[in-house]
Design goal:
heterodimer; A: about 425 residues; alpha+beta; BirA Bifunctional Protein, domain 2; Rossmann fold; elongated; B: alpha/beta; D-Maltodextrin-Binding Protein, domain 2; 2 domains; six-stranded mixed sheet; 11 strands
Chain lengths: ~425, ~210
């Protein structure tokens, strides 16, 4: 039998100090960008009643949630995403607040995933929600902020794909297909399965121009030329409005200066059911999954009692980390090591405190032997070793060039 | 230019796929030599070809270890990975079917506790449960599935049928068709976005070839 005490469960992992330092830097850089756009940090519970998340579908289906019971037998679930929780919070607790509301969050979400390496069951998302606007300016702002955040961590080559789920919904209204067939078609278009799409469209008795757009949907991606290719006079109002909306978002993103990163994909049909309008995913080299995703979810606020337009984006911090781990190092600096002789602890502590007060990291050596302390400083990679002797003397040994500077504790505390 | 990596399902599919790549001007001479190498490079077109077990192709592609994969529809259905399935290449044609003794023909839906042996438990389960609404018991096997009904391990099997010769020789028949199968051209979702032009170029050329066939 395996000794389970020694292992972590499938899909979860430790993050060791070197990696963790980089992760925290990334999180803080993303947070500063979102803050600079006017977003305010918030926290929601790590678990809620299952009912809160119920109905999101796709990656957030019942079988993807970790569930347990409270003492009254009600079902609880670890949060599978932040959007639903924040929407519940905004809808129930910020009803009178001035809109739009701008929230930012960083935290872990939990999903039961078939795990094999890259897919985790616990991972960190850092994201924003803009609640209280139906305007394409809101969509563009959220997408622009997400791209700014991705750039801020040092990723230059990426592609932000934007789509519009309502365009597809409009087409489906015209086909008159039942919900099950629509879902099948959605899946096949999302996976660009042309063969599978044709088997469904062949049975449809509709305008040929509409049929052709459905068949072409998987290939309706690229630059601004897509808008023209996707247009037909026979489109219904839903699809036309959706197309105009996406075009406007695209234009605004160009005004933000992000033209070279943005492309259109009308065949992208996200499988989370709460999306109602724009949807987007961001990709980069070196990771086979999106590093950021999001979209507009205009019905979700209403489900919690306070109908409002809303749009959000989430960045997968662990995925950024896997892209960046070979590229950049954490800026965490090495610590100074302070060694004090047995009767000189008070002076040792003063030296360390003075270093810390100046914003440096100062580590106290635990032990009595100076030779051991020197060995330790070398092995640790400390910048300098501060040796405090019982008579008040202080020797500062620069670890990189071995230079020693002799002074006294008092002189050190006065001058620095 | 980055290398585009193509994962090929070892065996006949790989050979047919290579012919297709050669016909659009890729250099795969290295692969034609009898060798145990699993990775081949075409330096002029910046392409890499890797040979992997068929059932591993979707994994390589989903994780982006390969940008493109050539693999049978059966493997895709069984694995249900998140990829773009772009072209039906039209070769490696066969079908997935429910097979068993002819005496069971048209009687399957009446059997309350049907035992189904298969190398493809997901496909079998999806077919019976989702499409037919029948609860079944799945017995996962790894080979010689035809044996299961003969020795009483299962009532029927769900397996790939090409010529039906093995079935006949073991006294089994096709009872129901599940779906047609053939080789598919699959693409990693990120690669599609990051290398759109090169991949779409291959897609267009392949589509043109398969459509004229």
């Amino acid at each position: 039998m395996s000794n389970w005490r020694l292992h972590t469960p499938t899909g979860v992992t430790d993050i060791l100090p070197d990696e963790c330092a980089l992760k925290k830097e990334i999180e803080s850089e993303i947070r500063s960008v979102f803050t600079s756009f006017g977003y305010n940090e918030t926290e929601t519970p790590s678990f809620e009643y299952y009912d809160c998340y119920d109905g999101a579908g796709g990656q957030l289906s019942q079988e993807n949630m970790f569930k347990f019971f409270d003492e009254q037998g009600r079902i609880l679930a670890l949060r599978p995403d932040f959007t639903t929780s924040i929407t519940r919070m905004a809808s129930t607790k910020e009803t009178g607040a001035l809109t739009p509301l701008r929230y930012l969050y960083t935290g872990n979400v939990f999903r039961v995933e078939e795990t094999q390496g890259a897919r985790r069951r616990e991972f960190t998302q850092s994201g924003i929600e803009l609640i209280g606007s139906y305007s394409p300016s809101a969509d563009a702002e959220v997408i622009a902020a997400a791209m700014e955040a991705i750039k801020s961590v040092g990723i230059e080559e990426f592609s932000m794909e934007i789509g519009q789920i309502a365009f597809f919904n409009g087409l489906m209204e015209q086909t008159g297909l039942d919900a099950d067939s629509v879902e099948k078609l959605r899946e096949r278009i999302d996976s660009k399965d042309s063969v599978g799409i044709k088997t469904i469209t062949d049975t449809l008795n509709i305008d040929d121009s509409i049929k052709n757009i459905i068949i072409e949907l998987p290939y309706l991606f690229g630059g601004a030329e897509v808008f023209e290719k996707a247009y037909a006079d026979s489109l219904n109002e839903t699809s036309k409005v959706a197309l105009d909306n996406l075009k406007r978002i695209y234009e605004l993103l160009c005004l933000y200066g992000f033209e070279k990163y943005v492309s259109i994909d009308l065949g992208m049909l996200e499988s989370i059911d709460y999306y109602t309008g724009s949807i987007f995913k961001c990709y980069t080299h070196g990771v086979g999954f999106p590093i950021c995703a999001g979209g507009r979810y205009d019905n979700l606020m209403g489900q919690f009692g306070s109908p409002k337009g809303a749009v959000g984006a989430a960045i997968g911090v662990n995925r950024l980390l896997s892209v960046l781990s070979g590229v950049r190092k954490s800026r965490r600096e090495a610590a100074f090591l302070v060694y004090a002789e047995k009767t000189a602890e008070d002076m040792g502590y003063k030296v360390a405190r003075s270093l810390r007060a100046k914003g440096r990291r100062a580590e106290m050596y635990i032990g009595d032997d100076r030779a051991d302390a020197e060995e330790y400083a070398k092995a640790r990679g400390a910048d300098a070793l501060f040796c405090v002797s019982a008579d008040g003397g202080l020797v500062i040994k620069n670890q990189s060039d071995g230079d020693e500077e002799s002074t006294t504790v008092n002189a050190f505390l006065e001058t620095r | 230019m980055r290398y585009l990596t193509v994962a090929l399902a070892k065996g006949r599919l790989a050979e047919l796929a290579m012919e297709l790549f050669i016909s659009i001007g890729m250099d795969c001479s290295e692969m034609k030599e009898k060798t145990r190498k699993l990775i081949f490079t075409d330096e002029t077109n910046k392409m890499k070809f890797i040979l992997v077990k068929a059932s591993d192709v979707p994994t390589y592609v989903e994780y982006g270890a390969a940008d493109i994969g050539i693999v049978g529809k059966d493997t895709l259905l069984e694995d249900n990975r998140n990829l773009y399935e772009m072209i039906d290449l039209g070769f490696g044609k066969c079908k997935m079917a429910v097979c068993g003794p002819l005496s069971l023909k048209d009687k399957l839906h009446k059997m309350t506790n049907l035992r189904v042996a298969s190398k493809y438990p997901h496909i079998a389960l999806k077919y019976f449960q989702d499409e037919k609404g029948q609860t079944i018991e799945i017995i996962k096997l790894n080979g010689s599935v035809e044996l299961a009904p003969l020795v009483g391990l299962s009532d029927v099997i769900v397996d790939i049928v090409e010529t039906g010769k093995t079935l006949k020789e073991n006294g089994l028949d096709v009872l129901e068709d599940v779906c047609p199968l053939s080789a598919r051209f699959v693409v990693n979702k990120v690669s599609m976005k990051m290398e759109r032009e090169r991949i779409m170029d291959i897609v267009k050329k392949f589509s043109a070839i398969t459509e004229t066939k």
